[in-house]
């Protein structure tokens, strides 16, 4: 596994780097066969250290976790514990879904855009055009999954929303985290 360990305005020493590599390798090896790389970023806010970790798995999933504590090692350990919990849940769910899945997950390409936020106040005039300003454009993958797998992917990635194609269908569906904490599912094929 490749590691990218860095500090945001703090120095990450060799001792901490070795600790992260050892502990993260042990944590991930229990639940994922072939993790490809891990990115660990340490930062400090006030009196607290913060650790954010993203582990890319060979299945195409990204596991994300973060931890905070007054000590930098404790912040990492908290983050690592949360990551292990996510991976444990993922592996348990994967065993349940693996019985039904005979083919690997198909992935389709799509365009993804980031739009500029509106800088207009209510007192100002209307903008000249209603076309939003695109500040970034990139390719993104849309996996072909069951609804349960889509929820699992969304939770593991820590994302608020996931766009996917239901297996055997050509339509695009969305699962998202609602404000009440439940999961919402949008299936436009059932609308018409």
UniProtKB/TrEMBL annotation:
One of the record's GO cellular component terms: cytosolic small ribosomal subunit
Domain Sigma 54 modulation/S30EA ribosomal protein C-terminal: 131-184
InterPro entries in UniProt: HPF/YfiA_ribosome-assoc, HPF_long/plastid, RHF-like, RHF/RaiA, Ribosom_S30AE_C, Ribosom_S30AE_C_sf
Keyword Ribosomal protein: yes
Gene Ontology annotations of biological process type: negative regulation of translational elongation
GO MF: ribosomal small subunit binding
Top-rank taxon: Bacteria
Pfam (any one): Ribosom_S30AE_C
Assembly notes: Interacts with 100S ribosomes. Associates exclusively with 100S ribosomes, which are dimers of 70S ribosomes.
Protein family membership: Belongs to the HPF/YfiA ribosome-associated protein family. Long HPF subfamily.
Purpose: Required for dimerization of active 70S ribosomes into 100S ribosomes in stationary phase; 100S ribosomes are translationally inactive and sometimes present during exponential growth.
Protein's recorded name: Ribosome hibernation promoting factor
Organism of this sequence: Tropicimonas isoalkanivorans
């Amino acid at each position: 596994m490749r590691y990218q360990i860095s500090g945001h305005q703090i120095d990450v020493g060799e001792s901490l780097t070795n600790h992260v590599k050892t502990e993260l390798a042990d944590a991930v090896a229990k639940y994922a066969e072939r993790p490809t790389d891990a990115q660990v970023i340490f930062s400090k806010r006030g009196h607290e250290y913060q650790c954010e970790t993203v582990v890319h798995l060979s299945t195409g999933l990204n596991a994300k976790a973060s931890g905070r504590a007054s000590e930098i090692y404790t912040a990492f350990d908290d983050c690592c514990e949360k990551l292990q919990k996510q991976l444990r849940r993922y592996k348990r769910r994967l065993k349940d879904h693996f019985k039904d899945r005979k083919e690997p997950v198909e992935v389709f390409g799509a365009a993804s855009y980031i739009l500029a936020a509106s800088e207009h106040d209510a007192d100002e005039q209307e903008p000249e055009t209603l076309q939003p300003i695109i500040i970034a454009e990139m390719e993104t993958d849309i996996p072909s999954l069951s609804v349960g797998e889509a929820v699992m992917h969304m939770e593991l990635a820590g994302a608020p929303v996931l766009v996917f194609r239901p297996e055997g269908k050509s339509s695009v569906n969305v699962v998202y985290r609602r404000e009440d904490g439940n999961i919402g599912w949008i299936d436009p094929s059932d609308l018409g």
